[in-house]
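FAQ

Q: What does a record look like?
A: Structure on top, sequence underneath. For example:
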């Protein structure tokens, strides 16, 4: 709904990614946060947080790490959002969807799709201000304050600019594919 909600979701990505249960962010003090185990459930390879949905590439670090991370993220963020906006019930539609990335080529292309997802959806205006993407982390290789393990992707390119060329070259095709899918859905559901 606003920048604070977007920031809170981003903060949740960090806090709920620990093998030790974190409890509620709402109830935590800064000192409690510092006492976490430091053992993540998953590596966040890349992400894009849009106003109405999100995408992530996660690499599991512990058994059932992806499922546990997504459960904590979904429950924790829903609790915060419902409390703030005085609402109840589910926030996310259905269970999270996942696909196993079974080849390096697929990994590279999906990373471009995830990093540039807000551009695929051509978000503009106020909604574009709510987007958070790991694209900036990828473009600034010296950056150390990010949450992504970029090594899996960037070690395959000479530098971040080469990765940018690769990802951006696929952008127009991604936009076109999305548009074609919408048209097919409209044709078959009208």
């Amino acid at each position: 709904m606003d920048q604070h909600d977007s920031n809170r979701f981003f903060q949740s990505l960090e806090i709920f990614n620990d093998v030790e249960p974190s409890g509620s962010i709402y109830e935590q003090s800064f000192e409690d946060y510092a006492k976490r185990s430091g053992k993540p459930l998953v590596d966040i390879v890349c992400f894009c947080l849009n106003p109405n949905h999100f995408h992530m590439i996660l690499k599991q670090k512990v058994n059932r790490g992806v499922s546990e991370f997504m459960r904590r993220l979904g429950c924790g963020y829903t609790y915060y959002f419902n409390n703030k906006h005085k609402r109840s019930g589910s926030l996310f539609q259905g269970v999270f969807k996942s696909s196993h990335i079974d080849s390096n080529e697929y990994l590279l292309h999906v990373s471009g799709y995830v990093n540039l997802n807000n551009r695929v959806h051509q978000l503009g205006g106020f909604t574009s201000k709510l987007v958070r993407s790991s694209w900036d982390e990828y473009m600034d290789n010296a950056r150390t304050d990010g949450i992504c393990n970029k090594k899996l992707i960037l070690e395959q390119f000479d530098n971040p600019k080469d990765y940018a060329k690769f990802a951006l070259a696929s952008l127009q095709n991604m936009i076109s594919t999305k548009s074609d899918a919408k048209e097919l859905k409209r044709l078959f559901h009208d």
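Q: Is there anything notable about this one?
A: The radius of gyration is 18 Å.
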